[in-house]
């Protein structure tokens, strides 16, 4: 590392306030239109100079990424972690070979539609860019992000944005900052590829970026086929007093509810705890 100090970089949870699937492409990906928003909370990446490379995962969902190696295959190996893939791509692109120690505090459930891995990769790239004096809008950095996953460019920018193409063509949108939000995950992991694979191929029309409430999440139906409990999560959130919008995020299974008032969000959180104490929750606000 050229830097002397420890860099702490937040990897906030990503939400898709609406997500319209328009078309399956020849490369297997789908053209989507989505409104990305980011929460004030999420995972945390810490980057420190070190004599040798080290990677640690701590936090409530650390075990989901490490201990599951046996039943989830190679994607759970540390070398396949998006943090390490981001580090390697950065080193190659910017010809950096200084050793470092990276700690991932895994607070977000894995494979849950809130971009955990994408957010971690993006935060790693931001931390490395800061350490090596590279601008966050450097085209090389954005190119690395796009190569790591469709959601990574949005997570790199970390700002409310309208996304088209694979979700990687971004136009910033200045809205909804500070909106109280409750995230709820029924602790069922959902594969993004499987959910896109279950889309019925029907184009239900464009998304108006000014009107997420008038939009949809076209992945909710195929995600419910994989994890039927998602319908219960959305129904419970929609029934809470003061909710302005409740919907599934990304490819699921995490669902979110937006509120005008913090006390309504907190009352909803208590109601969800009472109804389903085993479900994961995060009471936060849009950044
Ligand atoms: C569902 C969203 O989270 C919404 O923001 C994203 O579209 C998914 O982003 P991501 O997890 O970064 O996705 P990637 O890791 O690039 O892709 C995982 C798999 O999802 C499918 N995929 C993803 C994005 C997209 N626009 N079309 C797709 O069909 C592809 O099968 C791909 O192999
Ligand atoms: N740092 C990481 N955090 C979470 N998952 C990771 C990470 N690195 C690699 N992965 C792998 O990526 C897969 C998808 O995880 P992730 O949490 O990013 O999905 P997601 O929340 O559905 O993302 P998205 O909303 O972008 O579709 C997991 O099954 C996991 O094996």
From TrEMBL:
Pathway(s) the chain acts in: Isoprenoid biosynthesis; isopentenyl diphosphate biosynthesis via DXP pathway; isopentenyl diphosphate from 1-deoxy-D-xylulose 5-phosphate: step 3/6
Gene Ontology molecular-function annotations: 4-(cytidine 5'-diphospho)-2-C-methyl-D-erythritol kinase activity; ATP binding
Positions contributing to ATP binding: 109-119
UniProt cross-references to SUPFAM superfamilies, sorted A to Z: GHMP Kinase, C-terminal domain, Ribosomal protein S5 domain 2-like
Positions of the GHMP kinase N-terminal domain: 81-158
Enzyme kind, highest EC tier: transferase
UniProt entry tagged with the keyword Nucleotide-binding: yes
Key word Nucleotide-binding present: yes
Active site: 14, 151
Recorded catalytic activity of this chain's protein: 4-CDP-2-C-methyl-D-erythritol + ATP = 4-CDP-2-C-methyl-D-erythritol 2-phosphate + ADP + H(+)
Residue ranges annotated for the GHMP kinase C-terminal domain, each copy included: 213-275
Origin: domain of life: Bacteria
UniProt entry keywords in alphabetical sequence: ATP-binding, Isoprene biosynthesis, Kinase, Nucleotide-binding, Transferase
EC number: 2.7.1.148
Cleaved signal peptide residues: none
Pfam families: GHMP_kinases_C (PF08544), GHMP_kinases_N (PF00288)
Entry's Gene Ontology BP terms: isopentenyl diphosphate biosynthetic process, methylerythritol 4-phosphate pathway; terpenoid biosynthetic process
PANTHER family attached to this UniProt entry: 4-DIPHOSPHOCYTIDYL-2-C-METHYL-D-ERYTHRITOL KINASE, CHLOROPLASTIC
Family: Belongs to the GHMP kinase family. IspE subfamily.
Function: Catalyzes the phosphorylation of the position 2 hydroxy group of 4-diphosphocytidyl-2C-methyl-D-erythritol.
Protein known as: 4-diphosphocytidyl-2-C-methyl-D-erythritol kinase
Native species: Sphingomonas mucosissima
């Amino acid at each position: 590392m050229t830097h002397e100090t420890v860099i702490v970089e937040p990897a906030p949870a990503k939400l898709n306030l609406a997500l319209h699937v328009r078309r399956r492409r020849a490369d297997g990906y789908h053209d989507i239109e989505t409104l990305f928003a980011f929460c004030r909370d999420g995972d945390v990446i810490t980057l420190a100079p070190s004599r040798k490379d080290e990677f640690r995962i701590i936090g409530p969902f650390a075990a989901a990424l490490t201990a599951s190696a046996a039943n989830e295959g190679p994607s759970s190996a540390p070398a396949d972690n998006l943090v390490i893939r981001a580090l390697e791509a950065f080193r190659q692109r910017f010809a950096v070979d200084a050793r470092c120690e990276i700690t991932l505090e895994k607070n977000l459930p894995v494979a849950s539609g809130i971009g955990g891995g994408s957010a971690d990769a993006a935060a790693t790239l931001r931390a490395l860019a800061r350490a090596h004096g590279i601008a966050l809008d450097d085209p090389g950095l954005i190119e690395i992000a796009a190569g790591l996953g469709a959601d990574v460019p949005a997570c790199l920018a970390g700002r409310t944005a309208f996304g088209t193409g694979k979700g990687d063509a971004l136009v910033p949108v200045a809205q909804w900052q500070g909106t109280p939000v409750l995230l709820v995950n029924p602790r069922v992991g959902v594969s993004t590829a499987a959910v896109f694979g279950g889309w019925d191929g029907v184009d239900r029309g464009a998304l108006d970026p000014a009107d997420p409430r008038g939009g949809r999440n076209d992945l909710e139906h195929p995600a419910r086929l994989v994890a039927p409990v998602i319908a219960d999560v959305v129904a419970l959130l929609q029934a809470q007093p003061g909710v302005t919008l409740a919907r599934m995020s990304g490819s699921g299974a995490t669902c979110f509810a937006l509120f005008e008032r913090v006390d309504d969000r907190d009352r909803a959180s208590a109601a969800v705890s009472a109804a389903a104490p085993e479900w994961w929750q995060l009471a936060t606000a849009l950044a």
